[in-house]
């Protein structure tokens, strides 16, 4: 667990693009402050990097937990952002990693309610948990075109 002296919570998300569409997950909201807003929040698969955990190992763990996938290839880090998350009372450093994953049958965890594949044009139609995730997803689409 993070101690009180750790400056940032470091989290990473996997950007998976197939057939010009990106996989997003609807969050199963447990935080009362967010529930009251009655808004669907969307996210990418991934999560926190535990203390003393390698980022690749962390991403493997998260993708196994959230999508039940074991095999993927990291293509590149495409964007990051740092913000203060009031409900955690911490600074968060969020990193987006473009990955190539052969997903045939998605089995999402209880952390999520639903999933969908969206096109680049649909990015701004959704409310994301991370403040700049729409920008980060757009950068991933740009990188994926290279």
Shape estimate: globular
Major sheet details = 8 strands, mixed
Helix/strand-derived category reads: alpha+beta
Question: What count of helical segments does DSSP give?
Answer: 3
Give the termini separation.
38 Å
Q: What integer value in Å does the Rg equal?
A: 15 Å
Total domain units = 1
Mean pLDDT: 88
Percent in strands: 35-45%
Helix content: 10-25%
* CATH class membership: Alpha Beta
SSE pattern, N- to C-terminal: EEHEEHEEEEH
Briefly note the CATH topology name. Nucleoside Triphosphate Pyrophosphohydrolase
User: What's the CATH architecture name?
Assistant: Alpha-Beta Complex
Number of β-strand runs: 8
CATH-defined superfamily: Nucleoside Triphosphate Pyrophosphohydrolase
Secondary-structure map:
Elements: E1 8-18, E2 21-27, H1 32-35, E3 41-43, E4 46-48, H2 55-67, E5 72-85, E6 90-101, E7 112-119, E8 127-128, H3 133-145
Parallel strand pairs: 1-6, 3-8
Antiparallel strand pairs: 1-2, 1-4, 2-3, 2-7, 5-6
Short description:
It contains 3 helices and 8 strands; from the N terminus they run ββαββαββββα. The protein has helices at residues 32-35, 55-67, 133-145; strands at 8-18, 21-27, 41-43, 46-48, 72-85, 90-101, 112-119, 127-128.
Question: Which tags fit this structure?
Answer:
146 residues, alpha+beta
Structure write-up:
The structure is a single chain. By secondary structure, this protein is an alpha+beta fold. The chain has one domain: Nucleoside Triphosphate Pyrophosphohydrolase. The chain is built from 3 helices and 8 strands, in the order E-E-H-E-E-H-E-E-E-E-H. It has helices spanning 32-35, 55-67, 133-145; strands at residues 8-18, 21-27, 41-43, 46-48, 72-85, 90-101, 112-119, 127-128. Strands 1, 2, 3, 4, 5, 6, 7 and 8 form an 8-stranded mixed sheet that branches. Strand 5 (72-85) and strand 6 (90-101) form a beta hairpin. The N and C termini lie far apart (38 Å). The model is unreliable at 1-5 (pLDDT under 50).
